[in-house]
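Changelog-adjacent note: as of this version, every example in the card shows the full chain rather than a window. The one below runs 184 residues end to end.
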Amino acid sequence: MAFTGSRFEHLAGGGDRPEVSDRITAEDLVAVQTLSVTVPAPVALDLLEGALGVRLSGLLQAIPRDIDMVDAEAAVLADGSPADQAWHLLDDQPDVGWVTAGKILARKRPQLLPVYDRVVRCAVSRPPSFWLALHAALRENDAALHRQLLDLRQAAGLPETVSVLRVCDVTVWMGHRALGHACR
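Full-length structure tokens:
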């Protein structure tokens, strides 16, 4: 199947469903694989059944579930926030890294936390905080970028359940790769 990433947000009903929004499930681990990353087996088991999963669950409970990034206060995304702590917790795991950490969190909070990988990083020139930079960009000029992404989602015939952040990610990713950039 081409573009398996199209299943990322909605596989098994989505990672932000109320009954699973604050814990990692096997479906979440499969969903991140649709974006070409794999959570190492020891870490996956710890997320599903161990202390790591308990710690991450506590942090997820403190991260808003039903808010778009454009509507969130910057503090929700700032250094030291529960979202930032969750990202660091995952990034610090053996063989996980920043890309996989971000994709796991994007699966759990698709409206609030964006996918950020090497291609997106290459396209946006490594801002000090991608989350805060995107947050500011979505809000500036009376949320013009946010509205453009909503229009793009509608023009593409995508359901409203596809987050604006996912539309942004795919747009940046496809556009940057189409330009022939070799990002590392």
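Structural remarks: The mean pLDDT is 93.
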